[in-house]
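hey can u run this one w/ WQD bound, need the structure tokens asap thx
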Amino acid sequence: MKNKILVTGGAGYIGSHTCIALHEAGYEVVVYDNLSNSSREAINRVSTLIGQTIVFIEGDVRDDELLREVFASHEFFGVIHFAGLKAVGESVAKPLLYYNNNVSGTIALLEVMAEYDVKNFVFSSSATVYGDPETLPIHELSKRSCTNPYGQSKLAVEYILEDLAISDKSWNLIALRYFNPVGAHPSGQIGEDPNDIPNNLMPYISQVAVGKLDKLSIFGNDYPTVDGTGVRDFIHVTDLAQGHVAALSYLEQQISPEENCLNTAIAKQTSAKSGSVGFLPINLGTGKGTSVLELVTAFAEVSKQPIAYQFVERRAGDIASCYASADKAQALLGWQAKLSITDMCQDTWRWQNMNPNGYQAS
Ligand code: NAD
Ligand code: WQD
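ok here u go:
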């Protein structure tokens, strides 16, 4: 059985946690990352946590020559493609960078995969492809629309994957649409390490709690929500990581239901038949919405630190509420999120406390 997985962007926040989950599930991992938004130290720590040196290749997914070398030297079952740029504001300022990195990068990778006949692919998509949802919870068939180049780049890749699946039935292409990933590994050794002042809520809150930032600006308190602040579906990054393991198990089982499934529990839960998966979009969320103020309160309770905040104007492009229907992931992958908002705050706080300067201090 081939159980080697190429993890692009595996040194990043979600990728590093997923490497651990993959190792624990019995997969062999090769990480490919250009370290444009991550550090070698994350890989070192993952190696320490799993007690085995991770195979790491520093490279860009747009470098098709290097990719060919990698595919020629390893026999992969499939690829999990995390590599991408993700800052919405930066994407508005630098759209070409985002389309080049996220769209051209994915095309380059898919072309090399096709050359080497590796056709199992798990793509990091995002709830951002749903734009401002018409109804909640958001189902996979909800309308897709995006308002910024980052979101457009994710949507463009989804369209490419759909067309690819139509053109050639031997591709198995899963797009996992993540909602709002937060939290850190329970060891406190790996977590989210924003380069600059964080754009996202949870790292901002934790940096206020640890005293690096003075106060949180809450963008709007006049939304039609429980307390006027935005509502999101926060999901623990280790739950998200398990979602990738479940997606791979599903692919293995679809391709060869009997022999190839590492996770027999999932094999039993789903009634798989041999054949291709085509293009399969799946939400990874908890199905529960939490408001900005509720998250601030939960974090203050867990950390026992006051979180100073002020209300300011709404942030351009923000929506009021966003949470997933997680039914498809449950039905097809046998996966559901297990960890609570308290767990998310506790693990973020442990990581923040143990690494006030992220990976830099070490
Ligand atoms: P991250 O920035 O921590 O990880 C992305 C990794 O990809 C980094 O290690 C970076 O160095 C690497 N990378 C970027 N461009 C590359 C390239 N051209 N070649 C090789 N490596 C490259 O981000 P993350 O939060 O771990 O997100 C992982 C994926 O999930 C991204 O595609 C992101 O768009 C998507 N996503 C993230 C979120 C979120 O809120 N974190 C939500 C939905 C989707
Ligand atoms: C959450 C809530 C803000 C910061 C983003 C991307 C999305 C996806 C996940 C990649 C909102 C409020 C935030 C702050 C605040 N990423 N907030 N003060 O915007 O839901 O999603 O990350 O795919 O594409 O857009 O996440 O954490 O930025 O914001 O009040 O300093 O917190 O207004 O209501 P968002 P977020």
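The first helix runs from residue 13 to 24. anyway lmk if its weird
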